[in-house]
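Q: Given only this backbone (383 positions), what sequence would you predict?
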């Protein structure tokens, strides 16, 4: 029995820095105190930096990412509204399911797995159906590893007067995301992806155009009511008991992001993703998302005749290195290697070394170290 060490190369939850874990372990404080208000206020201000907004407001929700998605639908739409949804995988599909759950059958633009949406298709849909209230999109489709061109999509949506709502749960803190500059109306992210946090918090950023709609929106909402959150945020607090420990941990995670600088965070992810992709290619593997590959994770096609899910399970159970496979129709077809959040050069080297081991043990043939030497030449020796 070898000692295992956990490396989470998963598309969330991701690895948590010790500083953040320790911040979460601080003595409990009461949430209706100046002490908590100060932390919450500072965090809410820091989050504006994360979303790259000066004028938007950021709410902290006590839920996983999907809670924030549901909150967006409930706060933005009214009965009888029209909504447009971009579906390019499991998470785009979730927007469609959420709309349907509230009685709004959305118009879906379906994109082939592994491809990004063509912004012109969104324009065509907006032209064809006038009066669409909101367009629900995903920056990084975590199920396929694709990144969508949110900036171009937002500029189109703006022209048609619809609200641009973005699930950037794995985008923010990994890829450039500019709330104000790109004219995004509502954006969300979650704690357990690029933010280097345990699961449990989600963040929603809302701009002034969205407010006009939210104030009058007619779908039922109670716990998720942005109007209540906005009112309480003015008093530096939350409408209901917040996840105090997670809020304290998130403040520390934000301090780390601010210290590195958001542009450097984006650059780090681009560099690590590039090295991972090249490492996989050096092993003769094919990337699933090709030219649309995000910097969040690398989705790699399973080589013919190789049981990729068995390799993933074996690596996880025997070495503690965790990758994930494909979901639903992609099951058994891909392996997804996450490289977001608390990840650096040497972590990617571990990931590729583990990938080599898994494939090699399963009988896939290449020269051991073939992927690693590519990764090392890109990362380690580079000045
Ligand atoms: C992780 C994720 C979500 C939300 O999932 P939760 O399990 O509810 O946190 C939504 N969208 C994307 C793109 C994601 O990666």
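A: Predicted residues:
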């Amino acid at each position: 029995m070898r000692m295992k060490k956990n490396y989470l190369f998963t598309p969330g939850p991701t690895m948590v820095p010790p500083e953040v874990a320790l911040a979460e372990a601080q003595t409990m404080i009461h949430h209706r105190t100046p002490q908590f208000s100060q932390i919450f206020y500072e965090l809410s201000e820091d989050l504006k930096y994360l979303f790259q907004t000066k004028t938007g407001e950021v709410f902290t929700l006590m839920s996983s990412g999907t809670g924030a998605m549901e909150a967006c639908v409930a706060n933005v739409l009214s009965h009888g509204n029209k909504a447009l949804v971009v579906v390019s995988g499991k998470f785009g599909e979730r927007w469609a399911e959420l709309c349907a759950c509230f009685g709004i059958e959305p118009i879906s633009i379906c994109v082939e797995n592994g491809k990004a949406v063509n912004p012109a298709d969104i324009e065509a849909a907006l032209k064809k159906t006038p009066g669409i209230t909101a367009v629900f999109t995903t920056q990084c489709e975590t199920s396929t590893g694709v990144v969508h061109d949110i900036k171009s999509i937002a500029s189109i949506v703006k022209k048609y007067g619809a609200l641009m709502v973005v699930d950037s749960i794995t985008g923010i803190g990994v890829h450039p995301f500019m709330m104000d500059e790109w004219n995004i109306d509502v954006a969300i992210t979650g704690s357990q992806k690029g933010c280097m946090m345990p699961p449990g918090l989600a963040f929603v950023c809302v701009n002034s155009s969205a407010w006009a709609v939210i104030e009058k929106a007619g779908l039922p909402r109670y716990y998720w009511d942005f109007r209540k959150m906005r009112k309480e945020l003015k008093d530096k607090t939350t409408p209901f008991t917040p996840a105090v420990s997670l809020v304290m941990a998130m403040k520390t995670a934000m301090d780390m992001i601010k210290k590195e600088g958001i542009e450097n965070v984006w650059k780090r992810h681009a560099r690590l993703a590039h090295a991972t992709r090249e490492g996989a290619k050096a092993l003769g593997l094919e990337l699933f998302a090709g030219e649309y590959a995000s910097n969040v994770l690398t989705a790699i096609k399973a080589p013919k005749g190789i049981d990729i899910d068995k390799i993933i399970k074996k690596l996880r159970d025997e070495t503690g290195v965790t990758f994930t496979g494909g979901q639903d129709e992609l099951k058994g077809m891909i392996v997804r290697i996450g490289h977001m959040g608390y990840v650096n050069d040497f972590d990617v080297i571990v990931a590729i070394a583990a990938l080599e081991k898994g494939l090699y043990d399963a009988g896939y043939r290449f020269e051991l170290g073939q992927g690693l030497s590519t990764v090392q030449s890109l990362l380690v020796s580079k000045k």
